[in-house]
DNA sequence: CGTGAGTTTGACCAGTTGGTCAAATCATGA
DNA sequence: TCATGATTTGACCAACTGGTCAAACTCACG
């Protein structure tokens, strides 16, 4: 068992390789569906060798989750309270959509976990995600109070962004099956832009 | 192995019990995560007894899927080409949202399957869902051409309905964790109504 | 009743899975 | 170079899993 301090070159490389392989396997099979052997094979290591770098399957999984959550929430954190409300929000939507396009495995990893009741993430949800959501919901609430955005339920609004964007990653097979040749990500940005612009433009009711 | 024809009273009862138990277990654990023993226990039967009614775990799963798909698609089928376009569509959104509230396990069953690449559903997707989607997309397209609905990408529009509504079932734990005491389904109907009404009202661009 | 079909079960099996361990091999810096 | 710690592996294990089977039990009906 390698120590956490002073990781060797080999340790750094192999731990990274393992996490990459684990992302691939866990995101398509879920925690229970994935086997240590699959991950080891995907990483090009033997099973005992893999378990030399991580104490257990569970440990790989939780390290993956916590390691990726920060990146995953970056787009939301990046909403600037000083910017123009509507444009800030629309830019957030596009960033989030990009995440679905560029990191679909990460999205499916979380989706798998949460659909199954988030047994290994519940704490993270209330400790990390909840405060962030509330901060941004308050910000949006303020913008609405100032008449800069159309009045809506801020939390439901943010859920809407998540569901609409992550759908393209989580339900990728379905979306692609139904769209045939057309790449879903061709029209998705404009579609979501239109949707949220109409929803949020503070205007005489249409 | 009971014959399909002339099922006895006991057969009818037990097959139904098993499917109910299987829905419970599969929807929270996915196919691979669920064990036959879990399902048997949830159904109050012994494992060999359960396997007397269904030849295999796989058989239970596929029977569940195909049995539920029809119900699942009912709200979409019910869109009436003769009705008022906007109101028809908004009613569809609400029906779909009700499904998420009333049948969250069914939603998660499909979600689990599709997130993991739909290995047992791909054929169903292209054979059953695709034609239905195209029929309804064409209908919506027509309504837009007639100026009854604001112009958008019909397929992406339908994906939006699915993702927004199913999110409340599939990500139930997350949504409830983040909303605390407030029941998500209190504000969701109005939120989605507002969202799609703004999106689809054919009006001078706002 | 009694009898034959329908139902239930304990015991069992082979394959898989997460994880261990001692021994072998490799890398590195004194 | 060589000693020492880091890395790798084949063999192994106990628990679990999907599924089988013969024997026992129960039910409906003549």
TrEMBL record, chains A, B:
Keyword DNA-binding: yes
InterPro entries tied to this protein: Homeodomain-like_sf (IPR009057), HTH-type_TetR-like_transc_reg (IPR050109), HTH_TetR (IPR001647), Tet_transcr_reg_TetR-rel_C_sf (IPR036271), Tscrpt_reg_YcdC_C (IPR013573)
Molecular functions per Gene Ontology: DNA-binding transcription factor activity; transcription cis-regulatory region binding
Swiss-Prot/TrEMBL keywords: DNA-binding
UniProt signal peptide: none
GO terms (BP aspect): negative regulation of DNA-templated transcription
Entry-linked Pfam families: TetR_C_3 (PF08362), TetR_N (PF00440)
Start-end of DNA-binding region: 35-54
Keyword S-adenosyl-L-methionine in record: no
Limits of the HTH tetR-type domain: 12-72
The protein, known as: Rut operon repressor
Gene name of the record: rutR_2
